Amino acid sequence: MKDISIPLKLIKILSDGETHSGQQLGQELGMSRAGINKHIQTIREWGVEILTLPGKGYRFPAPMNLLDKEIIDNYLPNAHLEVIPVIDSTNQYLLEKLAKLNSGDSCVAEYQYAGRGRRGRQWVSAFGRNLYLSMYWRLEQGPSAAIGLSLVVGIVITEVLNRQGAERVKVKWPNDLYLDDKKLAGILVELTGRTGDAAHIVIGIGMNISMSSEQQKLINQRWTNLQQAGVVVERNKLISEIIVELKEALLQFEKEGLSSFIHRWLKLDNFINRPVKLIIGEQEIFGVARGIDQQGALLLDINGVITSYMGGEISLRSC
């Protein structure tokens, strides 16, 4: 990958939201105005909006709350967390170093250029405006014991956001967070391991915090972010709280499985007792959502008969 040190230095300077002239930036970084402009273009390619003010210089539309490992470490003195400015995928990064990881080891990035969601979909990123976090966990009981784990992750993140002022955030089966019936965050759980062996699990979380309208053109579903909902979060603190709560929940999940989380899910379920449409391949099934069962399957009430649906090519839409 090409050297990105100058764009990162520029972002740090511009993160105050003030106007900085090309001359000033050039003097600070030891290059010409043309050189500065070249790196400004790189930053724009990362999804960052930069205003060009003729005769004055450059500035961000608003200050940017950058990730700071020192701040996060103050919240998490005993955690192993890597803060990586630009990465292909936080999940892929951990998957490539499984042998060296311990449960709870995590990484977080400002920007992903190859982030992915469920079923191989691209996860649209923007530098410094969202949250891209992955955590490793070793589940000694093996792959079969991981059923329902994505639901637990959704519960934890939703509860953290509710406490930070985003009370309307809900969970959507099986691995999304919704706010006002629009997608706010997605969870991608990737697992390796054979039956009889421990499961190596990488949990990826992508959350829209203050994504710009420019990114909307790249997304094929209704989405929202915390900023649009009037919720202001400090990303370093949010990351720290998610990691602490997620570790605690995963330890509980190891001991008790999904059953002890079901009542928490029911309180947060965005579609509970609402008419929904399930899409399984080419098939559409209509009913009323009634929560989840002990295995994490969706319970659908079809004309008074409760049927469970688990995994596969299933997505959920409100009618």
Residue share in helix: 25-40%
Tell how many strands the DSSP assignment holds.
Answer: 14
Spatially, the strands of the biggest sheet line up as 3-4-5-9-8-7-6
Proportion of residues in extended strands: 25-35%
Secondary-structure element series: HHHEEHEHEEHEEEEHHEEEEE
Radius of gyration in whole Å, from Cα?
21 Å
* Low-pLDDT segments, ≥5 res: none
How would you characterize the overall build of this protein?
This protein is of the alpha+beta class and 319 residues long. The protein has eight helices and 14 strands. The strands form three sheets. The chain has a seven-stranded mixed sheet. β3, α5 and β4 form a beta-alpha-beta unit. The longest helix is centred in the C-terminal third of the chain and has 22 residues. It starts with a helix and ends with a strand. The mean pLDDT is 89.
